[in-house]
Specification:
With 67 residues, this protein is α+β, with helices and mostly antiparallel strands. The chain contains two helices and two strands, in the order ββαα.
């Protein structure tokens, strides 16, 4: 990914941390590129199905398109 040196912006859903205190965030570049989507499509991230969040179904569909 071409993010080197670019600022990222975080947006949060209703749940900000998981049970292990990991930060749960949507990550964007200044040009509004949605990095979470790219990470999922490239197989570099997984969807945590144990939580309900705004983009859950969208994220699952990204996983299905990269298989």
């Amino acid at each position: 990914m071409k993010t080197k040196g670019q600022k990222v912006f975080l947006r949060f859903d209703e749940i900000k941390h998981d049970q292990d205190n990991n930060l749960l965030a949507y990550i964007y570049l200044k040009n509004k590129t949605f990095l979470n989507a790219h990470l999922l499509k490239l197989g570099l991230a997984e969807v945590d199905l144990s939580y309900n969040f705004k983009n859950k179904e969208r994220f699952i569909s990204y996983l299905n398109t990269c298989k």
